[in-house]
Amino acid sequence: QVQLVESGGGLVQAGGSLRLSCAVSVRTFTNYAMGWFRQAPGKEREFAAAISWSGANTYYADSVKGRFTISRDNAKSTVYLQMNSLKPEDTAVYYCAAVRSRVLTTRKYEYDYWGQGTQVTVSS
Fold first, then answer.
1. What CA–CA distance (Å, rounded) separates 29 from 102?
2. Which of 86, 95, 97, 96 is nearest to 121 (CA)?
3. Residue 65, C-beta contacts closer than 8 angstroms, at least 6 positions apart
4. Is 110 helix (H, G, I), strand (E, B) or coil?
């Protein structure tokens, strides 16, 4: 059983920063590529960022590129999302997800496990 627990969400003013964490309970964390997705009210869940098993490869949605950074600490079985220069349109519930693959993917249907989500609200 794989469990993902996100933390670090909250309320921030536009232009501010937040760092999300996702702690993963799994026997072999390095068997999994990881991703962050987000879902705004009334919208579908969308891809934000992904990272390969080693952290050597990352990929970002155009909407967050240059502002968000995904990283992982395999010794701690944790993945992070550093979010800078936040905008009101970044307001959403952010979900951490794991796929049993060493190669990253942007496709949400390919992910095997999901966290419960953490709310990020950016005020203007």
1. 10
2. 86
3. none
4. helix
